[in-house]
Amino acid sequence: MNLYETLAADIESQVARGVLLEGDRLPSVRQTSQHRNLSISTVLRAYSMLESRGVIESRPQSGYFVRPRTAHAPRPAAAPAAPALVLSSEVDVSRLVLSTLRTIRTQGAVPLGSPYPDPSPFPWPRISQYANALARRARHWSVMDDLPPGNPELIRQIARRHMENGLAVDPSEIIVTVGATEAINLCLQAVARPGDTVAVESPTFYAMLHAIERMGMRALEVPTDPREGISVEALRTILTQQRVAACMVMPNFQNPMGFLMPDARKRELVELLASHDIPVIENDVYHELYYGDSHPTSLKAYDTKGLVLHCSSFSKSLTANYRIGWALPGRYTAQVEKLKFLNTLTTPTLPQMAIAEYLQNDGYDRHLRKVRKGYEQRARMMAAAVLRFFPAGTRVSTPQGGYVLWVELPAGVDAMKLYALALERKITVGPGHMFSARGSYPNYIRLNYSYEWSKEIEEALRMLGRLVSQLASLRGS
Fold first, then answer.
1. Which neighbouring-strand residues pair with 201?
2. Residue range(s) of every CATH 3.90.1150.10 domain in the chain
């Protein structure tokens, strides 16, 4: 099909599946052009085709809307149920992370080591208003209302959000979870078993290591470039030498390095894994927190075999108070849905409905633009402050999105010693030990720059610089 025919078919499919309902407004021509990397004339031609078919209608000065329809396509049938899987134990890296997270709660501590975003710019009061209003209107919910895959309206809003970002998804594939962490754990359970080897980036986000450890699997750390992501070449060699059950990656604004994997490398990674029939779990929680002019693509966009299990949440972009995430597990949808039921039974309905109401009625994009602008400014400010206050030999990452900075300290500086000294001064940092099962990053730290820049934060960075200089001088003496 031509480009405009493909776009028209995607939109028509979303209407048929109920992602777009009668009267819903389509993304503007300009917005669709930017998100899909299409010319405006191509988008206009697609919209014109849909209008001629009676799928949408144009309204002067308002845009394009879904026309009323007499019937909707039926929901696709579910895939066969999956067999039960076995859980295993957890190991030391989890205890280190738990200890580190507890220190973040230290009263008055500067939260540079926090993995969580500053909640102050998030629309928590507005979402709470929706939750309270919903609770007053409907007081007779039962557990049956919360069963997987999740609240239908929230699922529709998630599917619509993906569509607006250029990825048409099947709503029947979406499973709502208790945050992205549960989504990752469920997806890993669905594709691998205790004793299996799982390939990960190095360094990698510790929640992914937790999932591997908890289930008695082995993490195989693959070299990862700070600009291009996991080495596809190294992974290709590994796959010729040993069996790998699955791969887990963060291609968009990876935690802790903040890189954005180029589209060509994303496609290459998906094609490599597909050639070996290996599933890949994509952690995409920072997808909405990009700094450029348009959102990034996801691995899911290049998946033709249902092997990409896409995981995300609203915790990093909208509210962490309601831990609402979701998975798009591809060919493993039935397994993940069953495991969701067996592991946690339900995801509470009220938070799902409140977020759905906000997405439907309020300015999510306006909120995101403000957050992105603040993060991008603070990323530059924190990087400049670290290079100014820390000793020679310090290097910093160049985040393309998200809100964390990866810092390489001078050789020989022990990040765990820095962590302890900083905590005595009520400053928290994320030591590099947390991001590798092998302890590969002893002289690295991760810093959070989501909080409003202040004199307190600047003084904390100045103090960290002094401490790093002291540790470096002790090492050299």
1. 222
2. 93-121+366-476
Token pair recorded at residue 295: 């959102």
Q: What is the DSSP string of 90-113?
A: --HHHHHHHHHHHHHTSTT-B-TT
Fill in the amino acid letter for 411.
A
- As assigned by CATH, the class of the 3-66 domain is mainly alpha
For 420-460, give the DSSP string: HHHHHTTB--EEGGGG-TT---TTEEEEE--SPP-HHHHHH
How far is 433 from 444, CA to CA, in rounded Å? 8
Residue 193, token pair as written in the block = 């078993």
pLDDT at 48: 87
Strands 246-249 and 280-283: parallel
Asked if the model's pLDDT at residue 148 lies above 80, the reply is yes
Query: Band of the pLDDT at 61, cuts 50, 70, 90?
Result: confident
pTM: 0.85
What percentage of the chain has pLDDT greater than the value 70?
90
* pLDDT at residue 69, as a whole number: 63
Q: What is the CATH number of domain 124-361?
A: 3.40.640.10
- The 3-state DSSP class for residue 237 equals helix
**Structural tokens at position 242:** 């040993």
C-beta atoms surrounding 94 within 10 Å: 17
CB-CB contact of 279 with 310 (8 Å): no
